[in-house]
Amino acid sequence: MERSEIISENIGRYTYVHDAENGFSQAVDVHHIHVRRRIARKFLLCFVSGIFLVYICSLLMVKQESLGTGSLWIISLGVILIRSSYRFSVDKESVIIMPSLGVQLETHYMSGKIKHRFVPSGKILKPILNECVTPVTCYWSLALLIHGEPELLLVFQKLRPPVKMLIPVWKALCAATSGGSTILETEDGHWPSS
């Protein structure tokens, strides 16, 4: 008998979904962070695509024997921009925790492409919740300390979700890798806030 528990939470432009599937042999813990697309961005992309399509049609309808090199550059640049806006836009990132096997990290793009990265549980030393400070901004990230690797492996490589979404994933990773979670508190004894 399979039981599935789904928890969803919206914070800012991100939606966190926790889907725990408990099967016969092992528990699979799935955490998704979706990017909620703004309607204005979709409208702007459709509007620019429409203008670009009208421009191409007007060039082809005008009785010219050949298209100029300037118009060919504009057409190729437009195709590249529209295609790259879909190809490199991240739709969601997922963490699939299988305690006896390991952790699978997935990045889903709007184009339909999915990048997978599997880390066996024997190679994971510890999940780490970091506060990253740059000259412009400050944000939280979740990383895995991997045995034999000189660098940390970021769990959410493309997205920067708030710390309220990272804490449940961090706790699940701690429970799966070390048998229990360690306590993360600030100096005043409270959880970090976003």
What is shown here, in short?
With 194 residues, the chain is α+β, with helices and mostly antiparallel strands.
Helix-strand blueprint:
Blueprint: E1 3-11, E2 14-22, E3 27-35, H1 39-61, H2 69-87, E4 90-98, E5 102-109, E6 114-120, E7 124-133, E8 138-146, E9 153-154, H3 163-178
Antiparallel strand pairs: 1-2, 2-3, 3-4, 4-5, 5-6, 7-8, 8-9
Helix pairs in contact: 1-2
How does this structure look, described?
There is one protein chain. This protein is α+β, with helices and mostly antiparallel strands and 194 residues long. Helix content is 30%, strand content 37%. It contains 3 helices and 9 strands; from the N terminus they run E-E-E-H-H-E-E-E-E-E-E-H. It has helices at residues 39-61, 69-87, 163-178; strands at 3-11, 14-22, 27-35, 90-98, 102-109, 114-120, 124-133, 138-146, 153-154. The chain has a 6-stranded antiparallel beta sheet, with helices on one face. Strands 7-8-9 form a 3-stranded antiparallel beta sheet, covered by helices on one side. Strand 1 (3-11) and strand 2 form a beta hairpin. Helix 1 packs antiparallel against helix 2 (69-87). The longest helix has 23 residues, at 39-61. The chain is elongated, with a radius of gyration of 22 Å. It starts with a strand and ends in a 16-residue tail after the last helix. The model is unreliable at 181-189 (pLDDT under 50).
